[in-house]
Predict the 3D structure of the following.
Amino acid sequence: MGDMLRGVGVSSGVGYAPALRLSRSIPDPPADARHNGDADAEIRCAISAMEETARDLTARGERAGGAAQEVLAAQALMARDPALADDVKRRVGEGATAARAVSEAMAVYREMLASAGEYLAARVADLDDVRDRIVSRLLGVPVPKIPDSDTPFVLVAGDLAPADTATLDPERVVAFVTREGGPTSHTAILARSLGLPAVVACAGADTIDDGTRVLVDGLTGEVVLEPTTETVEAARSTAAARAAAAAESTGPGRTSDGHAVPLLANIGGPQDLPAALDNGAEGVGLYRTEFLFLDRADAPGHEEQVGAYRAALEAFPGGKVVVRTLDSGADKPLAFLPAPGAEPNPALGERGLRMMRRHPRVLESQLAALAEAQRDTDAQLHVMAPMVTDVEDAEWFAAAAASAGIEHAGVMIEVPAAALRARHLARSADFFSVGTNDLTQYTCAADREVGGLSRFQDPWQPAVLELVAATATAAHQAGRPCGVCGEAAADPVLACVLVGLGVTTLSMGATALPMVRAALARSSLEQCRQAAQAALAARTVDDAVTSARGHLSGLSDLGL
Ligand SMILES: C=C(OP(=O)(O)O)C(=O)O
Ligand SMILES: [Mg+2]
């Protein structure tokens, strides 16, 4: 079938064509590049290149519209950042050429972003692209751009800048593969909004030569080099079956025998609501509010928070909207809420509710904004705390929520201690939502950020499933709902297993909703239960997947 590379599928669909690489060969201005002594003239060149770049990015954004416009506007702001301009002026004042000064000043920003954890590190590609655009203008060399081709191709790159992704022509580019990037990168988000199959974080992407025929599966993350005709045909027919099944799956989530499993969307802010609605979300199961707080020097004010929360509540009249209070710390550091000191293991340090217990005012203001946002809407606001560890944490949060007038307060179950003691936590939580991403990280002691530990970052690990089962059982006995909002819910096979374990709602990135809806519609509750028991009885991850599938025969026409 040809050599296979693996990455992270971030935008589903199958693309097949010869590869064309995007090369970013902007020469790095040498460290000793000095200007001719006229610093003022050199500064004018630098500032006008920065301004022209900002204008060009804005114009591209206006042409592209939608999500791309926001991303490109953010890049234009980077090019116009006054602190950056000051740093460039200072460096030119010390003798550097305009190109060298821009390159050095942006390297400082890059370092800061790259070390600031997953969410900000994902913005490095955006910044690099801005730098390349300004420096190439100053050096008079062409701006890096997508290769021209009259025939369709698979675009392969180290990383793709949003400015490139936004203007990709889906008639020409049938898919893309990048070595860098993560599921939360702008590039991944734009690929989904363009409907382009895409695989990121593909370690072998550099080995793909121009002209190699490449088959990209944006659901599984598989990239096959020089596939046989049969492999291509099989992948295409699977994708067509999946797309047809997904298209016909509409309405509320339910198993084939009518057991209701509300399907909710994970969102990071109002910008994600259109996709949630388009994909038939029945509400929001996880509103990651920290996105409103990232990338800024101060916390958003009361009115701004009220507006952002109300947008979600108004999008789902009568529906359920679960908002998670600020989950900062570890991979989501906030400028205005630093950790108490250097933490050798930030994921095991002060994050989530732990941070809020040290800064109760920040939580109080968020809860007050949520309570106000709900006024005059008829959505059912649910508020939950991240990183709850024990009963004392759960009681503390329940009291804080009650005094802010929040009616439904729950906890995330993402620490094994909380899962094991769920029956006790249930007394002070109206609902549970299992965060399988962190629950897996902590159960298997495998840092989410470390690429080499993927075997232990798999929520199919039977130990993780045992903890989900314990939580769902405790919730059931206490008469409480128990959702899952980690990535596990987006895996259509695992979603059926979770339902069989007793999970009552599933929440996921919007684009995963149709496949999960289709998978549930093809499986009875009894089949889901049998699949769950088989997965729990399995010895390994592979056994768990294989034996669970064995009970879910209806999934075969989805190619699962
Ligand atoms: C949903 C979760 O939270 P986050 O991914 O934001 O940590 C989780 O841990 O599963
Ligand atoms: Mg988490």
Observations:
- The longest strand covers residues 14-21.
- The domain at 39-139 is CATH 1.10.274.10 (Enzyme I; Chain A, domain 2).
